[in-house]
Amino acid sequence: MPDVFEKRLRRAEQLSKEWEFAAGILGFYKPLVQVQKDLLALLDAPAGDETTRSQRTILARLLEIVRDRGPRVLAERASTLSAEDLHVLEIEQDRDPVDEFFLRVLEQPKYASTVRLEGLDTTKHPGLCPFCELPPAVSVLREDKQADTVRRTLLCPRCCNEWDFPRVLCPRCKEERPEKLPRLTAQEIPWMRVEACDSCHKYLKSVDLTLNWEAEPVVDELASTPLDVIAREHGYVKIAPNLAGI
Asked: pTM of the entire structure?
């Protein structure tokens, strides 16, 4: 089973050394990824008391990380939770965004290893994940050698699967006029950009793997805070917050 969290951890380590502006947010994210990596390893462990105790230990460590390093609203919520509370946390409609953070941390290892979008209808709600029905966390551009073009996919913030999506189309309101879909960039991050919409005033960030194949979409999206500043200065609001609430 490919360990996507090991790749994210390596990328976070790399960017924390290269991007001084992202040191703080990555200092919070790196131990979260380690928690996810440890939870992923337990998926193949036999059911039993020892596995349950290991899960409780990891969940307690997650709460400690959030209390010590997380944004204030997350730290305050973590102080009211126990490992048992996290163990029974379940998906609910219209869940509080703070609890959604904990759910995303816990569910990503399971979904990343089991959920596949093949066969699911991606046309019913094209701007939402076909499995989780959540708006995308990031847009990804990569070369499509068969079509001799650049392919765009959207990545789900919970299951981390990707689905195809037209390059010139707003995932939120389906605006398709190019003049209404500005692209904003930051000189220090040439392989990334803000994909904004002047109709619904939403945005998400895009990672262009044709310009930097070492980029890891989830990590680079989280760490590229200058782009969020630029987007907010232009009056745009992100379609879906990342794990740091940005």
From this structure: 0.91
